[in-house]
UniProtKB/TrEMBL annotation:
Lineage: Bacteria, Pseudomonadati, Pseudomonadota, Alphaproteobacteria, Rhodobacterales
Binding site for Zn(2+) 1: C155, C158, C208, C211
Domain J: 5-70
InterPro entries hit by this protein: DnaJ, DnaJ_C, DnaJ_domain, DnaJ_domain_CS, HSP40/DnaJ_pept-bd, HSP_DnaJ_Cys-rich_dom, HSP_DnaJ_Cys-rich_dom_sf, J_dom_sf
Identification of the protein by name: Chaperone protein DnaJ
Pfam families (alphabetical): DnaJ (PF00226), DnaJ_C (PF01556), DnaJ_CXXCXGXG (PF00684)
Gene name of the encoded protein: dnaJ
Molecular function GO terms recorded: ATP binding; heat shock protein binding; oxidoreductase activity; unfolded protein binding; zinc ion binding
Stated role: Participates actively in the response to hyperosmotic and heat shock by preventing the aggregation of stress-denatured proteins and by disaggregating proteins, also in an autonomous, DnaK-independent fashion. Unfolded proteins bind initially to DnaJ; upon interaction with the DnaJ-bound protein, DnaK hydrolyzes its bound ATP, resulting in the formation of a stable complex. GrpE releases ADP from DnaK; ATP binding to DnaK triggers the release of the substrate protein, thus completing the reaction cycle.
Positions that bind Zn(2+) 2: C172, C175, C194, C197
Superkingdom in the source lineage: Bacteria
One GO location term (cellular component): cytoplasm
Description of how the protein assembles with itself and partners: Homodimer.
GO BP terms, alphabetized: DNA replication; protein refolding; response to heat
Location of the protein in the cell: Cytoplasm
């Protein structure tokens, strides 16, 4: 039985480039792999046929011989085979061909190819998070605060190398510094993290007695942090290089401080604006007058209440709110009136209120308007 043309086997034209040949083989390798074609008894043979074709066409010398003589180039010891074996013999040829596209097929899943270079022994330290609660007054004025952070710091005994006396690590003999090892499993070449060096690519012969070879120690560290005025809940402050120390001399991570501003007993915050709900007596709301209200800076402001004020009425104090975190402007403070109904009335007070109610004319505009609408509603329902 005559063999199929190698180009036809890979589904490419005779003038295909090396990249096109490689892409054709990748496609066929995925399409014809026996694991994906358990119901096709010919899948394995077709898979090997594609491997044989690629083993020849990927090699410039073999490809040139095949283009000139066809399959005869590799029969009867004719020159051009170039490597002393028939292209279709053994599994070694398959492993050679398939390993060329292994990283393309599975590189992302396995973490990418090593690229022929040793992985760095140093690893960057982890970033750390610290939650800091501040009062509204502290958020208004800003502050300098000292915090204690449990973290990893570089070992001073070995200068972060992890080796006794600060000696440099040696190349891992198992993976030759690659950090990964490859093993042949049937048709597949499987790449795994080196079990000897755990993927670092280097080893410490004599680990430091203090840090056990890690190059860092667990320790609490005190830091002075500047909290700017105007911070809000959720504000994130980044301190570069103040996170966990790197492994074996690697760079330190960062420290992220997340601000949580506590609720206040008097003020409610909305961005840069503040709201303060102030209770006023029925008499003050009716006759008008002045009241004194607190401000977030610890001061006092006098506010004039117009006569006839109702609950919910707001008055603005410009510039008495929170400072803007970005810029020199400040928000406003809004005073919201809450008119109180008198309680615990004496007999005389009740008598006076009844007298007032008897002579009250047009003193309750909202009351009169509401019940006029109610009367209109009921009349419309009757009709």
């Amino acid at each position: 039985m005559s063999k199929r043309d190698y180009y036809e086997t890979l589904g490419v034209s005779k003038g295909a480039s090396a990249d096109e040949i490689k892409k054709g083989y990748r496609k066929k390798a995925k399409e014809l792999h026996p694991d994906r074609n358990s119901d096709n008894p010919n899948a394995e043979a077709q898979f090997k046929e594609a491997n044989e074709a690629y083993d020849v066409l990927k090699d410039p010398e073999k490809k040139a011989a095949y283009d000139r003589y066809g399959h005869a180039a590799f029969e009867n010891g004719m020159g051009g085979a170039g490597r002393g074996h028939h292209p279709g013999q053994g599994n070694g040829d398959f492993a050679s061909a398939f390993s060329d596209v292994f990283d393309d097929l599975f590189g992302d899943f396995m973490g990418g190819r090593a690229g022929g270079q040793a992985r760095s022994r140093a690893q960057r330290g982890s970033d750390l998070r610290y939650n800091l609660r501040v009062s509204l007054e502290e958020a208004f004025s800003g502050l300098q605060k000292t915090i204690t952070v449990p973290t990893s710091v570089g070992c001073g005994t070995c200068n972060g190398t992890g080796a006794e006396g600060g000696a440099e690590p040696v190349t891992c003999p198992t993976c030759s510094g690659m950090g990964k090892v490859r093993a042949q499993q049937g048709f597949f070449t499987v790449e795994r993290t080196c079990p000897t060096c755990s993927g670092v690519g280097q080893m410490v012969k004599n680990p430091c007695a203090d840090c056990g070879g890690a190059g860092r120690l667990e320790k609490e560290r005190s830091l002075s942090v500047n909290i700017p005025a105007g911070v809000e809940t959720g504000t994130r402050i980044r301190l570069s290089g103040e996170g966990e120390a790197g492994l074996r001399g690697g760079p330190s991570g960062d420290l992220y401080i997340f601000i949580d501003v506590q609720e206040h007993a008097l003020f409610e915050r909305d961005g840069v604006n503040l709201y303060c709900r102030v209770p006023v007596s029925m008499v003050s709301a009716s006759l008008g007058g002045d009241i004194e209200v607190p401000t977030i800076d610890g001061g006092r402001s006098r506010v004039k209440i117009p006569s006839g004020s109702q609950s919910g009425r707001q008055m603005r104090l410009r510039g008495k709110g929170m400072p803007s975190l970005r810029g020199n402007q400040s928000g406003d403070m809004f005073i919201e009136l809450a008119v109180e109904t008198p309680v615990n009335l004496t007999s005389r007070q009740k008598e006076l209120l009844r007298e007032f109610d008897d002579i009250a004319v047009d003193n309750n505009p909202q009351n009169d308007s509401f019940f006029n609408k109610v009367k209109t509603f009921w009349d419309s329902m009757k009709s």
